[in-house]
Structure formats: structure tokens, C-alpha cells
Amino acid sequence: MIIYLHPQNPEARKLKQISEDLKSGAVYIFPTDTVYAMVACANSRTGTEKLYKLKDMPKNKPLSLLCKDISMASQFIEYLPNPAYRLMKKLSPGPYTFILKANKSLPKPCVAHHKNRHIGIRYPDHIYLQELLSVHNAPLTSTSVLTNDEYLTDIDELEDIYGNQVEGIVDGGLVQVEMSTILDFTNDDMEVVREGKGFDLISLD
Questions:
Q1: Could you tell me the CATH superfamily of domain 2-200?
Q2: For residue 135, what pLDDT is reported?
Q3: Helix/strand/coil (H/E/C) assignment for every residue in the chain
Q4: I want to staple 196 with a disulfide (CB 3.0 to 4.6 A). Which of 12, 103, 126, 179 is the partner?
């Protein structure tokens, strides 16, 4: 089912319904500031398991944690190095994944898949996800929509492949494939795992 939201003022009623579905274990597909992504509620074991099954991912492969802001993310981070904090303040929301050490408050469905307690934090710069996170008031787990090693960017193609497997697909138009930049701060110093969108804006000064 394709879902249409107002591009400037997404309908709160629709977002609240999506939030309730996610809490009950549903999976949705949303546009992000990089590619389309499957999302589930981080507090829902049913949704998280479904996400792994849909993507056919090994369960030791981590998912990203989508957060509304640094305040929400800080609930799950054991230690936030100053360089990481400065970059988050400067660049978020944006196309960046920050790999950090997670604390014991990490949602239980995520803990089962993150034995080393490292978690990738994302603050996507897309109004639909930002508004959903405000309504949902809890983190989401996510993974990019990838089929046969290709990222799906067309809403009709997404509907053809996943229309009967997810609760809904939010129409974000044709997205341009640009992967997020991944920065690892688990050892305090920054390690660039992947140079992606927005990498040229990174500076620790």
C-alpha cells in the first residue's frame, strides 16, 4: 500500500496510525535523506525480526538506530566522545551514521542483534521521518532497501516487490541514491568507515 503525505506538513493522523502499527510489529518503507529504508520500532522484537527476514540479513549484522535528536540518542549511548558530540551538533540532522558504544538501555530487541553493544545512530534529514519520530517518541531500527545489489528508488517498483510484505510504503518520489557517511567513534578517535553523502563537510576543528 502506497501512502501519500503532505511534503511540507505531513498529516499527524496518518503518522500516529503508522506509529501505532510500528509498535505492534509492523514494518514500513520510508524515504530518507539518502535512499529508501525499511523501518521498524526499536522496541518491537516482532518488527525487528521481520526487518531481518525481509532483508534476508544475518542476525549478527547491525541495523541503524534512527533517533529524533541527540537527546533521544543519549539515552542509549554509553559514552559520547567530544569530537562525536561536536560533529553531531554541527551536522545533524543529515546523512551521517555515528557508530558508538551503547549502554544497557539499548532496546532489548536490538540487544539480541548487537552483542558487542555498538550501535549506529542516525538523525535523517527528511521531514517524514523527523515528524514520525516526534509522534512515535521512540527510536526506530532501519536498513536500506536493497534488492539484487541495487537500491530501489522508484515507488512503483517498491510497491511491486514489497507491497504485500510491509504495512505501507511512504511515497517520497524518485530518490537519488547516495549512501550515508559512516563514522566510528567506539575508540574515541574518529575512524571513517565509509565516505558518503556530506563527507566533504566533516571537520573536527
A1: DHBP synthase (3.90.870.10)
A2: 94
A3: CEECCCCCCCCHHHHHHHHHHHHCCCCEEEECCCCEEEEEECCCHHHHHHHHHHHCCCCCCCCEEECCCHHHHHCCECCCCHHHHHHHHHHCCCCEEEEEEECCCCCHHHHCCCCCCEEEEECCCCHHHHHHHHHHCCCEEEEECEECCEECCCHHHHHHHHCCCCCEEECCCCCCCCCEEEEECCCCCCEEEECCECHHHCCCC
A4: 179
Task: Give per-residue pLDDT as tens, 58-93.
Answer: 777 778 899 998 888 888 888 888 888 899 999 989
Amino acid (one-letter) located at 100 = L
pTM summary value:
0.90
Please tell me the distance from the alpha carbon of residue 197 to that of residue 127, in angstroms, as a whole number.
18
